[in-house]
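Postdoc handover notes: sequence design on the structure in folder B. Input tokens:
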């Protein structure tokens, strides 16, 4: 039985795992003969009706009554009457009388449902937009929900708009709010809607524009052509027009009084110059309202409907989609009139840029003087936000008739948007620039912004080419900007692991005298006083007069030092790089500090790298540099990782990951994921290692980020070593450490080489391990890695012949660790030394080393490494080493080690190599393990071991 004809085939639901689980829980409740209620609340367009339809379609326990939204102004008890009519229609019975004169109580509804929908099986009642029901019907339904029918299980599944979710008639009932779709669900929806291949950048634009609203995303997919979706033609602007927004959200605005809608238009227009800000100035809006003859109290209905919030200082819309609907849902003439009105009531002397912006938004057609005034008011040094500067310059471009000046202003607007952490807006502005015969200065600046955007989110090979092109075009006119472009190109090549490209980017190039280029004078000054790579340098407003470089200019020292280091002359590179590091002690330029951190890492001065990056972070936070902060956090987390400060590295990488996502910098996010994977490989969170390493590689491989890929693979291999999987670790690290096309990043692969040596020795590949040790010796001799000398001695001990040579080498390694300040690496050396001593039948010495390792691992927060150490202690006969709970307590230490290795998937031969015993010994122990634990297969053993390791109870 279904009400109002039939339950149609439901559309597919995307995401909504939590919401569908709540609906299934209601069905389970009815299956157990208990009534229940579930409220689904959401903004318009988020799919509450689709979820209701899916629930009705999937319900098979009994009849379903479905009610669509009622028409406006229903009479008293009209909702209950419609529900009973639906029940009667479903069984072909006569509809009930049209009214309930005496009223209804909660007890009446179950009785009426039994009358019009008889039967003892569960009944599901689905009501869409129950907030549109009349008040008496809502009261009866809410009361009935709180007092379920004891004779028949009735489920009430009700949807309502988000702003009515606290309706007193339904207070206290189970409520699920439908939030916006996440990116993966929205991507799946777009794929099904578009029916065509959607370009990656177009998809990103559409997801951003829709803000997780399925109805808006559907309107976008319907509006665009296949060529536009595929990225072959420019996207229309605006992407979502007023009609589409009104179709989704108009029901929230249409019932309001005309004066309230006018006031909302003023609020939306006031927000337009800086749409990312937290609301619009309330005093400005109310002054404009009074000027227009509107009573400020006209805002009250909008507040009651929760469309806006007025805190006395700012007026903030409930969502940006609502704000855009209020703004675009009226004719353009009304929008221009609103801006003109706002311009008249703004204090033009105090808020000149905001005043000019509203004048510009009220203008029609080119206006050269107004455009020039906007550019002047948006110049660096004026007290305003980056997004407001971006809006001013983009509007100035729209008012500019001269194509070169228009392109220059759009480029400057894009740069401000990028620096403010809004790369999508920056790309939209760049897309509006037209290809043509613009001067090299204009093209150069455009390519500089384009390359910077690709460096943060895109293939770094594309970024490199764009930045080199920018340097070539800007070189004759603006040596400083050209140098910054080359620095960024070097960053791109470094991320790609291309040392030759790094050297090309850093190469000295002759800078000819600037020619007489009138277009250079037309171009506005570069907008950013602080931008990544060029973020720290304010480009000159007068390209004709470059300031003389001071002696030992930090950028030139950095350039010279890095180029010399990459050429392999570290001794000669040290003086200029040391000058860069020393200047960072009192510097307050975040980009110079960031470079000082890089210079310190190249010099092997890890503490200085941590200090420089921490200072850069403090400056960046104080100045609100949204585009630079994620990269600083990445550099700081990496420096802390190198210093062995794993907790600090995790904290800063997590913060950096969030900042990178907010700023749209997926390349930086990938680096943060790789760092978090390395931290997790110390802490033995296998799931976290896999998740972070997978997320890093998913972005890094298609974008050519070899450094990130190498770090992620190193993390996975170290986790394998921690879990006793040397074969897997060697297989991961082998391609990265050997010569060949799959070799790892030149600045990272040597850091991972000690892990490869250990894995290779444990897996029986001693010849490969020895070759790797000799290469690592060359690296250690350069003195740029504080841990390398101790790690080299440890590696030599691992490949030493079966005599007492290894004893002296392990002792040497520990002596060198004392000067390197790395607790985790020292503990690993202690563990390996303890293992060696135990196998040489020197248990007393082995216990001392293993106990020291255990304490260090526990202090480092490395539980799995600590457990590995405890197992070794138990194998020495140390009774103080705790034993695992459950049935595994019946095993000897050696049997327990074999059981764990087999549970991890190792073969008998692999276990034998790992434990330095024969395969026959492993087979003997494994048979005893099977007998003691009562298992018949390796699969059963694996299940039992994993259950016991998680603290489960043995059968």
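Designed sequence:
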């Amino acid at each position: 039985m279904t009400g109002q004809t039939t339950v149609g085939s439901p559309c597919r639901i995307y995401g909504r795992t939590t919401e569908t689980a709540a609906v299934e829980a209601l069905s389970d409740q009815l299956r157990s003969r208990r009534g229940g209620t579930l409220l689904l609340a959401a903004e318009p367009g988020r799919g509450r009706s689709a979820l209701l339809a899916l629930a009705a379609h999937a319900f098979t326990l009994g009849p379903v009554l479905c009610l669509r939204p009622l028409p406006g102004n229903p009479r008293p008890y009209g909702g209950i009457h419609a529900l009973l009519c639906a029940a009667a229609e479903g069984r072909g019975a006569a509809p009930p009388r049209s009214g309930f004169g005496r009223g209804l109580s909660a007890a009446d509804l179950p009785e009426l449902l039994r009358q019009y929908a008889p039967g003892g099986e569960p009944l599901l009642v689905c009501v869409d937009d129950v907030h549109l029901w009349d008040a008496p019907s809502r009261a009866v339904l809410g009361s009935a929900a709180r007092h379920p029918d004891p004779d028949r299980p009735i489920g009430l599944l009700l949807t309502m708009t988000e702003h009515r979710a606290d309706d007193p008639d339904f207070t206290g009932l189970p409520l699920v709010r439908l939030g916006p779709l996440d990116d993966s669900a929205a991507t799946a929806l777009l794929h099904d809607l578009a029916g065509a291949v959607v370009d990656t950048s177009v998809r990103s634009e559409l997801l951003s524009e829709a803000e997780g609203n399925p109805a808006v995303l559907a309107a976008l997919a319907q509006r665009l052509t296949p060529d536009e979706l595929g990225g072959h033609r420019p996207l229309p602007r605006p992407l979502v027009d007023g009609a589409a927004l009104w179709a989704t959200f108009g029901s929230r605005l249409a019932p309001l009084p005309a004066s309230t809608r006018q006031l909302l238009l003023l609020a939306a227009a006031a927000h337009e110059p800086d749409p990312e800000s937290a609301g619009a100035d309330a005093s400005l809006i109310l002054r404009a309202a009074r000027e227009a003859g509107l009573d400020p109290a006209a805002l009250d209905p909008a507040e009651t409907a929760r469309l806006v919030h007025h805190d006395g200082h700012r007026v903030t819309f409930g969502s940006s989609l609502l704000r855009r609907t209020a703004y675009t849902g009226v004719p353009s003439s009304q929008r221009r009139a609103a801006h003109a009105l706002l311009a008249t009531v703004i204090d033009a002397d105090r808020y000149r840029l905001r005043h000019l912006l509203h004048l510009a938004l009220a203008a029609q057609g080119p206006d050269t003087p107004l455009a020039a005034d906007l550019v002047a008011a948006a110049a660096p040094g004026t007290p305003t936000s980056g997004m407001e500067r971006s809006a001013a310059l983009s509007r100035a471009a729209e008012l500019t008739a001269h194509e070169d000046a228009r392109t220059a202003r759009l480029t400057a607007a894009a740069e401000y948007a990028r620096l403010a952490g809004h790369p999508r807006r920056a790309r939209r502005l760049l897309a509006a620039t037209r290809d043509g015969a613009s001067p090299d200065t204009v093209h150069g600046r455009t390519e500089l912004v384009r390359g910077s955007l690709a460096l943060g989110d895109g293939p770094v090979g594309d970024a490199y080419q764009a930045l080199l092109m920018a340097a070539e075009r800007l070189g004759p006119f603006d040596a400083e900007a050209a140098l910054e472009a080359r620095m960024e190109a070097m960053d791109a090549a470094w991320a790609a692991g291309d040392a030759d490209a790094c050297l090309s980017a850093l190469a000295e190039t002759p800078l000819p005298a600037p020619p007489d280029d009138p277009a250079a004078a037309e171009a506005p000054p570069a907008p950013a006083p602080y931008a990544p790579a060029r973020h720290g340098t304010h480009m000159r407003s007068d390209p004709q007069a470059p300031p003389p470089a001071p002696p030992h200019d930090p950028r030139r020292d950095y350039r010279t030092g890095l180029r010399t280091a990459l050429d392999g002359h570290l001794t000669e590179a040290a003086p200029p790089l040391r000058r860069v590091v020393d200047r960072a002690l009192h510097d307050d330029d975040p980009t110079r500090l960031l470079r000082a951190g890089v210079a310190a890492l190249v010099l092997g001065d890890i503490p200085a790298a941590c200090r420089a990056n921490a200072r850069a972070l403090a400056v960046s936070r104080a100045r609100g540099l949204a585009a630079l902060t994620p990269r600083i956090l990445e550099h700081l987390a990496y420096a802390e990782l190198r210093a062995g400060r794993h907790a600090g590295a995790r904290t800063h990488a997590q913060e950096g990951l969030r900042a990178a996502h907010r700023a749209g910098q997926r390349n930086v996010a990938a680096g943060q994921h790789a760092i978090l994977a390395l931290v997790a490989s110390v802490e033995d969170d296998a799931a976290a290692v896999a998740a972070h390493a997978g997320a890093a590689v998913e972005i890094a491989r298609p974008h050519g980020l070899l450094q990130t890929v190498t770090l992620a693979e190193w993390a996975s291999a170290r986790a394998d070593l921690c879990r006793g999987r040397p074969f897997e670790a060697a297989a991961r690290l082998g391609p990265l450490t050997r010569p060949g096309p799959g070799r790892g990043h030149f600045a990272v692969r040597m850091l991972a080489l000690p892990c490869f040596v250990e894995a290779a020795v444990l897996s029986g590949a001693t010849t490969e391990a020895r070759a790797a040790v000799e290469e690592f010796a060359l690296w250690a001799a350069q003195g740029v890695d504080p841990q390398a000398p101790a790690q080299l001695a440890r590696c030599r001990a691992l490949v030493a012949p079966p005599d007492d040579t290894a004893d002296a080498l392990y002792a040497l390694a520990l002596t060198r660790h004392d000067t390197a300040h790395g607790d985790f690496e020292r503990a690993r050396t202690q563990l390996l030394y303890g293992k060696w001593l135990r196998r040489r039948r020197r248990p007393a010495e082995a216990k001392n080393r293993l106990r020291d390792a255990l304490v260090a691992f526990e202090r480092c927060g490395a539980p799995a490494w600590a457990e590995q150490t405890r197992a070794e202690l138990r194998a020495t006969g140390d009774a103080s080493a705790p034993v695992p709970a459950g049935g595994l307590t019946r095993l000897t230490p050696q049997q327990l080690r074999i059981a764990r290795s087999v549970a991890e998937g190792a073969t008998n031969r692999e276990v034998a190599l790992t434990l330095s015993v024969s395969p026959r010994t492993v087979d003997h122990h494994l048979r005893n393990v099977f007998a003691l634990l009562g298992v018949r297969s390796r699969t059963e053993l694996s299940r039992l071991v994993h259950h016991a390791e998680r603290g489960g109870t043995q059968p």
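Context for whoever picks this up: Residues 479-496 form the longest helix (18 residues). Don't rerun without checking with the PI first.
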